[in-house]
Amino acid sequence: MKTPDTPANEKERLKTLRSTDILDTDPEERFDRLTRMAQRVFGVSIALVSLVDENRQWFKSKAGLDACETGRDISFCGHAILGNDIFIIEDALEDERFADNPLVTGEPKIRFYAGAPLRYLDGNKLGTLCIIDQKPRTMQEEDCTMLRDLAEMAEGELSAIQLATIDDLTKISNRRGFISLAQNSINLCARQGTPVSMVFLDLDKFKPINDQFGHAEGDHALVMFAELMRKSFRDSDVFARIGGDEFVVLLTNTEKDHAAEIVARFRGQVEAYSAKAKRGYDLCFSDGIVSMLPDQDSLVDDLLREADVLMYEKKLDNPQPVKMAKQA
After folding, report:
1. E strands, 222-275, in order
2. For the segment 279-315, what is each residue's pLDDT rounded down to a tens digit?
3. Any idea which fold 175-317 has?
4. Which residue spans of the chain are classified as CATH 3.30.70.270?
5. 300-317 vs 175-192: helix axis angle to the nearest 10?
6. Contact of 146 with 86, CB cutoff 8 Å
7. Cβ neighbours around 78 below 10 Å, total
8. What pLDDT does 320 receive?
9. Widest CA span of the chain, in angstroms?
10. Of 119, 237, 298, 320, which is the most exposed, with the fewest CB atoms less than 10 Å away?
11. In the chain, ranges of CATH 3.30.450.40 domains
12. In this structure, what DSSP letter does residue 9 have?
């Protein structure tokens, strides 16, 4: 048996997969409809929407199979995500890579497999739409075209999940996406006994940018602020634009003093950008920081509200002037 190789972009691929927040979620009709269609169209015993995680392949949708996941080391889909087109095994017993695979010698007794890689918005291959049968089969070109078409539909459904949690303008998480990702991080920190810090960021004097320079420039300012966040914070941190000129960051395994240092460093990076960009105004922000050692009952909404209150208290106590250059 041959264990699937690891893709060259595995770290990035796994980060993208986990950012979808789809692993271990309940079945959804939009995916189940596709596996039922594939099972019926091809007349196979099993059809799956399979997502390849670090050590397993997990089935978002399954028709004809009871198992929810199997090990990645024995997966066919682990091989399929290595290529750019459909991965086909016409007879697993005749293929030295799979002849002694436990999924072939035991249940579900795979003989035929065809898996079309599922690409995400960033191009990473997260899993497959695959069909499986317990007898050898061949795939004609029209069969391959149909499987590709169904895979594109599955990719569209995966993209819809992302688009529902991503801010259209800045391309970072929106409020909905942040709530989901941040709550998962808080729950993990609660299990590990590590602190979290919530940082609420509000751009100061943002309205004058729109009024003096126009809304297109205001949009540019928001996009650049989000880009600075993306460059400044760690991969383990969760950040988002939650509305208007309001942004938020959840810093994991971070106490309040350390969070304040991180925010101060980020402020310096924002100031450096403004000085270099010379767009006629300075980007600056007010912040509110809340830190805690979470437990299993800790909710991201509670932290958000508290950090929001602290931010506005600081904004009122220390109003920040913003330089504006006069338009010619």
Report:
1. 238-243, 246-252
2. 999 999 999 999 999 987 888 999 999 999 999 888 7
3. Alpha-Beta Plaits (3.30.70)
4. 175-317
5. 110
6. no
7. 25
8. 56
9. 78
10. 320
11. 10-163
12. T
Write out the two tokens for 5: 């190789």
Q: What is the pLDDT of residue 326?
A: 45
The tokens for 324 are 């504006």
Compute the distance between CA of residue 65 and CA of residue 77 in angstroms, rounded to an integer: 15
Q: What is the pLDDT of residue 163?
A: 77
Structure tokens at 288: 């509110």
In terms of CATH architecture, what is 10-163? 2-Layer Sandwich (3.30)
Q: Say which amino acid occupies 149.
A: D
Residue 196 belongs to what H/E stretch? Answer: strand 196-203
Q: Following DSSP, what letter does each residue of 38-100 receive, concatenated?
A: HHHHHT-SEEEEEEE-SSEEEEEEEES---SEEEGGG-SHHHHTTSSS-EEES-GGG-TTTTT
What's the pLDDT score for residue 313? 86
Angle at 122 between CA 223 and CA 36, to 5 degrees: 130
**Could you say which residues of the chain have pLDDT below 50?**
322, 326-328
Predicted pLDDT at 327 = 46
On whether the CB atoms of residues 312 and 304 are closer than 8 A, the answer is no
d(CA 120, CA 127): 9
Quick check: 238 and 249 in contact, CB under 8 A? yes
